[in-house]
Amino acid sequence: LFFYVDLNGYWQPESDSWASYCEPGLEWKPVSNFTLRVGPSLERAVEDAQYVDTINDPTATITYGNRYLFSTLDQTTLAANIRMSVAFTPNVSVQFYGQPLISSGAYTRFKELARGRTYDFNVYGEANGSTITYDATGNFYVVDPDGGGPASSFGIGNPDFNYVSMRGNAVLRWEYLPGSTLFFVWTHNATDTAPYGNFNFDESSQRLMDAPGDDIFLV
Question: Is 16 a residue whose pLDDT tops 80?
Fold first, then answer.
């Protein structure tokens, strides 16, 4: 029985962006022909300048006729990596891999690049008299980049997300004659998305179980 912990991360002081990752796990080999490895993982990341969109605007002369939109992205991802291998005989074996995953991302502090070749931004609602408001439907933001200035207002689709997936595959290998091998393969892929950025384990777990998916069988 083996235990392990994988830890890593980074921090960018100039942009106040950071990410951290932790994956504790174990590997169990009770007999010589059976191995099980389970490794849940948690990743937290905050990106200060996540690209969102490019808006064409002739009045944005300082950025060459375009407004380059960015946002702060706060993302949480929880997953589990499950691997199993069984050798029934030297010629017949099964390998399995599965990964349930839940990820959410919330976008805040929408902003535009202030000028080229810099890390300067104009945050909407804080600079140049700009405003940003939710549309009545709650599906997108309405931005006025310069208040009473000549620039036209525009909309930004709400990029918040909650994503779940269940992926897995199993392979039965049978070497029925020396040098001649037959593979039976099953692959499962199920995903679902929702337009909100909060991390809710209970709700996401239920969506994960109900997510529509594809099953593929190959020989």
Answer: yes
